[in-house]
Design a protein that fits this description.
The structure is a single chain. The protein is an alpha/beta fold and 380 residues long. It has 2 domains: 5-256, Alpha-Beta Barrel (TIM Barrel); 306-378, Arc Repressor Mutant, subunit A (Orthogonal Bundle). Helices cover 43% and strands 24% of the residues. It is built from 17 helices and 17 strands. The chain has helices at residues 32-48, 50-53, 73-83, 105-114, 128-133, 140-152, 171-184, 201-208, 216-232, 251-257, 284-292, 306-319, 326-333, 337-340, 342-350, 365-369, 371-378; strands at 5-13, 15-16, 28-29, 56-65, 88-98, 118-124, 157-164, 188-193, 236-239, 242-244, 262-265, 270-273, 276-280, 298-303, 324-325, 354-357, 360-363. The strands form 4 sheets. A 9-stranded mixed sheet has the order 9-10-8-7-6-5-4-1-11, sandwiched between helices. It has a 3-stranded antiparallel sheet with strand order 12-13-14, with no helix packed on it. α1 runs parallel beside α3 (73-83), α3 (73-83) packs parallel to α4 and α7 (171-184) runs parallel beside α9. It is globular. It starts with a strand and ends with a helix. The protein binds S-adenosylmethionine (SAM) and iron/sulfur cluster. S-adenosylmethionine binds next to β6 and β7. Residues 16, 22-23, 25, 65, 67, 97, 99, 122, 124, 161, 163, 192, 194-195, 197 line the site of S-adenosylmethionine.
């Protein structure tokens, strides 16, 4: 019998209760009518991949968005019915993203019955004024209520998303967030530095008047405080923005960072199979039209060269605390990493941005603040 390879599955749910001021992810305001239609087409898309999926063992599933918790749980249940037609490994990591205001106990119990075993919740901040200012539709109390529900429903593995360098945010606010995290005791934290995406409301505000926004120095100060404080809570940094208790690193995201294969379904999502990246339409009508014609809703396909993949592998690898494993990269790309990148390695070690530990090259603490500059030196 043919040996089956492992694969990760991502499913994009492009609906939210409202749009946050900083976000440019592919999502629109939820309506029952649109979600009903979308989920019908999602199942159709999965069916078109039957042949590929029959040859794989699914070992991670990530239902992301948008806000998957904004839709009726019966639709999420239907997706799982469909996915269970394929082989899912026994210990698969199965995550769903959520927002506190739509994460009821009833929904969580339903998620549990579908086999979901990891909840990721967007908190962003525990300060009601900041939450309101960035357009979140929940309060700190709703975050705490949702966390209570997560625990009551019996989920041990859960992540909170938080953000740094939000307008009017200062170190005191971050200290308060860390205190809340200590009380909540999650297994995973993603702490993202705000990226001012063009076309977002926050970008417009910044262009008009940037006084409320942290400068680079304050941003880094907050970041260092977060890294040190989370470490004390046993949430060890394993990627620039990600922290986990031992054994709770997100296996699905590690697949992205390690350039493993994954198949994604839904609007705007991208798949990676061998050295090809497939990206779906991000427009509802085009996505539906392709599926009506029984075609995969792929907008573009990129064949990535060895050079592209190597660049990606280095950029992703260097952001991981484990760094780049010399033997792994040499074997995977048939190169002599230390010879090929001798100049970049020596330069960055000499200025204290890079270090070698056993057979891995990784950023130093200082290097993590200047990761973009290091990446540029390795870019070929
Ligand atoms: C796309 S959201 C999906 C999950 C859910 N809807 C939520 O709001 O948490 C995933 C996370 O991305 C982060 N995020 C979104 N836009 C960002 C930006 N411009 N800069 C930094 N982080 C951002 C937020 O922390 C958010 O929780
Ligand atoms: S941050 Fe989450 S809730 Fe807010 S618009 Fe983006 S996807 Fe939707």
């Amino acid at each position: 019998m043919m040996k089956k390879n492992n694969i990760g599955i991502y499913i994009h749910i492009p609906f939210c209760e409202s749009r946050c001021q900083y976000c440019d992810f592919c999502s629109s305001i939820i309506s029952e009518e649109n979600s009903k239609k979308y989920f019908k087409y999602l199942e159709k898309e999965i069916d078109l991949y039957r042949e590929v999926l029959n040859k794989k063992i699914i070992d991670t599933i990530f239902i992301g968005g948008g806000t998957p918790s904004s839709v009726d749980e019966k639709y999420i249940g239907n997706i799982f019915k469909k996915l269970k037609e394929f082989e899912i490994s026994k210990g698969a990591e199965i995550s769903i993203e959520s927002n506190p205001n739509s994460l009821s106990l009833q929904k969580l119990k339903a998620y549990k019955s579908f086999g979901i075993n990891r909840i990721s919740m967007g908190a962003q901040s525990f300060n009601d004024e900041i939450l309101k200012d960035i357009g979140r539709v929940h309060t700190k109390n709703q975050i705490l209520e949702a966390v209570k529900n997560v625990k009551e429903a019996g989920f041990k593995n859960f992540n909170l998303d938080l953000m740094l360098a939000l307008p009017h945010q200062n170190l005191k606010d971050i200290e308060e967030s860390i205190e809340e995290i200590e009380k909540i005791n999650p297994t995973h934290i993603s702490y993202y530095s705000l990226i001012l995406e063009e076309k977002t409301e926050l970008y417009k505000r910044y262009r008009k008047n940037n006084k409320a926004f942290a400068d680079e120095y304050t941003d880094r100060n907050m970041y260092h405080y977060v890294v040190k404080s989370l470490e004390k809570l046993g949430l060890k940094q394993y990627e620039i923005s990600n922290f986990a208790k031992d054994g709770y690193e997100c296996r699905h995201n590690l697949k992205y960072w390690k350039l493993c294969d994954y198949i994604s379904f839904g609007l705007s999502s991208s798949s990676n199979i061998l050295n090809t990246r497939y990206t779906n339409f991000s427009n509802f009508s085009k996505y539906y039209k392709a599926l009506d014609q029984n075609k995969k809703p792929i907008e573009f396909k990129e064949n990535l060269s060895k050079k592209d993949r190597l660049n990606e592998f280095i950029i992703m690898g260097i952001r991981l605390n484990s760094g780049i494993d010399v033997e792994e990269i040499n074997e995977r790309f048939n190169i002599d990493f230390e010879k090929k990148y001798e100049k970049a390695i020596n330069k960055n070690i000499n200025i204290g941005l890079l270090e070698k530990s056993e057979r891995n090259y990784k950023l130093t603490e200082f290097g993590r603040d200047l990761s973009n500059a290091v990446e540029l030196d390795f870019f070929m």
